Structure formats: C-alpha cells, structure tokens
Amino acid sequence: MMKKSVPFLVIFVFVLIIIMLFLSLASTKKMIVVERGNINQLPIEMKAGLYQDSDCGMVIDDLNDASQVIIKSGKSWFFHDHGGMIKWLEDKEFRDSAKIWVMSRDTKKWIDARGAFYSLKDKTAMGYGFGAYEKKSNEYVDFETMRLRMLRGETLRNPLIRKQLLGN
Fold this sequence. Notes:
Elements lengths: L1 H26 L6 E2 L31 E4 L5 E4 L2 H8 L9 E5 L6 E3 L4 E2 L13 E2 L9 H9 L7 H8 L2
Antiparallel strand pairs: 1-3, 2-3, 2-4, 4-5, 6-7
C-alpha cells in the first residue's frame, strides 16, 4: 500500500510547489519600465522603488539623478543616472526630438535636460558623475558638453578623468 501511494504523494508535492511558485510570482510588485500615454510629454511623478532603469535594468531606488525620456507618441522611459540615459538615447531615431526631463539636485524638481547644467564630479548611481542643476555654476557644463563627455568616456568611471577631476 505504501509503495502505491508514494508516486501520488510526489505528484501532490510537485503540484503544491508549482501552485506556491505561481502565487508568489503573482504577489510580487511589477516594475514600471515604460509608460505610455504621456502625450503632453510632461514629467511623470516617479516613486523610488517602482521604476526600472531602461539602460541597465536596475531598480531606481533614488531619484536624485533620475531622468525621463518622452517621445511625441507619449512613450516614456526612465533612468537613474543621466550618463546611462545619454548612452541609451544615442542610437535612437528620436534622440533630438524627445523631451528629456532630469531631477535637479539643487531645486529638487523636474527640469528640461537640455537647459540644465551638469556637474562632472557628483556621486551618481552608475558612477558617471553627472548631477543635474537648475542654477548655473562656473564648475558646471551644459547638456551638449555633458553628452559629448559621456560618449567619449570622459566620466568618473574613467580612472584618468577621475584623477584629473577629484585628484584620487
């Protein structure tokens, strides 16, 4: 009798494990990678821990250096480091027409990325060093300079640039 019930017991345990796995997957929080319908191309009010970076796939846990790329169709992508956003955007056909919003470190609000000023040596999520600011400073660069520095690899991730900017 015991030998006949063992296969049924194994199948029962296997089915139970599968059911538990599906239930646990259903209860996990879904990350927002892309949002649609933002036709006005205004910044979306993000909450830390709910969005996923479109470049590296990491969870955006800190909004200090968050950015959003929104195209005319209303499709929006999210990033936790401006350098990663630049890298991701570079080969997109909408690179020049997209609306880009960045969180400013000084005023703590969403500002137009193309009109922002960028530090070269802030501590950022991916270590590129480009913090965005609304108010100009002699140490900051404009959007196009930041973009070119990112694309040429002139970031804090480059040991030579790091030593040049930070002295270590």
